[in-house]
Amino acid sequence: MSLTEPTEIMQQSEHVYLTTSKFDSCDQLVKSVREFYYTKGYGISIRGSRQDKHVILQCDRSGSYRDIRGISGKRKKSTSTHLIKCPFKIVGKNHGPDGGWIVDIKDLSHKHEPSIDISGHPSFRQLTPESIKTVEEMTKAGIPPRQILSSLRQQTPNLPAISRTIYNVKRKIKRQSLGDRPLINALFQELEEGGFTYDISHNPEGRISRLFMAQPLSIKLAKSFSNIFVMDCTYKTNKYNMPLLDIIGVSCFNTSFYSGFAFLEKEDEENYAWALRAFKEIIGEGNEPCVIMSDRELALMNGINNQQQISVIQRPKGRPPKSKKKRGVTSTTRYPSRFELVESSQRCNKMDDDNNLIDLNTYPYDTCDLDGPF
Asked: Which residues have a Cβ under 8 Å from the Cβ of 369 and sit 6 or more positions away?
């Protein structure tokens, strides 16, 4: 029975339809009642049920807001609810193999007008099993939800689903894939199945405070191109507010690649030193980097200097000032790059032997190749 093409049964009066209809199963009853009220602009949800006994149906605007998370009184966002204690209620009962399922009317009144756009009701935004399978396949392929929704709407132009519907389906698929496994156990299993190399550290309470991981191909690239690495932390990547240290290498083809990742407890010298030790173990002896670029993160630079004597380039923060064009200088004039200036300073023994740091701010931008890889 289609939701967009009402049948003769749906055109009957509400009371006559409910009292005269009989159904072979509970699922058939729920589907038929929902389709009937779909044409009238009302959404129906299941309030409760007992297998092979009864099912209680109500308006999807019945009930009132419940503070499930217990955040009342605390600082929270200003939100609203569509629940208005609508009194509509009917009960489907099973009268045995011969009698089938019938409807018992409790209250047919509503406290609101019927909806013009039925897509506002969550009960009518549910996807079919075929659409759910499509969402699962596209999610595994790494397609974002907005593109998944566009693809489903191309297949079904009148699809009432919204972006929240796709997110709910993805969360349900994720919950089913986890099964009874905790999130951290599922993560370690995924890392082992993918051949990742990882290391963990626990705090005094026994909780995981640090996690380092590297993909097999990233390890091979890091060993092959171990001269230069860029290290920096990113934020807002997880609900635990743990900074994620990105370690990026540079190949001989002037391209970059991810070498490893590390979730840290916080940005201090101890956490950076732990991540550097874990990274040093995967690249092996003799592959220590010559230069590491950072954004003036003192804790990271101190951790690097405590690990090994290498050059740390302080990458200037912000955009460099616009260089002025000099007379007689054309666009084809080649200036030395920043790394050439660093190498020149090393040959001239201008590097400070105490902290082994090179500050690119000491080199004027108008004499540097600003179109270089960094």
From this structure: 334, 335, 336, 337, 338
Q: For residues 92 and 30, give the distance between their C-alpha atoms in angstroms, rounded to a whole number.
A: 8
The Cα–Cα gap between 276 and 245 comes to: 10
Greatest distance between any 2 Cα atoms in the chain? 100
What distance in Å separates the CA atoms of residue 150 and residue 104, rounded to the nearest whole number? 41
| 315 Cα distance to chain centroid | 30
Per-residue pLDDT tens over the stretch 196-238: 999 999 888 888 899 999 999 999 999 999 888 999 888 777 8
Average pLDDT, the chain: 77
Q: Which residues contact 63 (CB under 8 A, 6 or more apart)?
A: 83, 85
Reported residue count of the chain is 374
Q: Hey, where are the domains in the chain?
A: 1-64+81-124, 125-179, 186-317+333-367
Q: What is the band of 337 on the pLDDT scale with cuts at 50, 70, 90?
A: very low
Angle between the 145-155 and 129-140 helix axes, to the nearest 10 degrees?
140
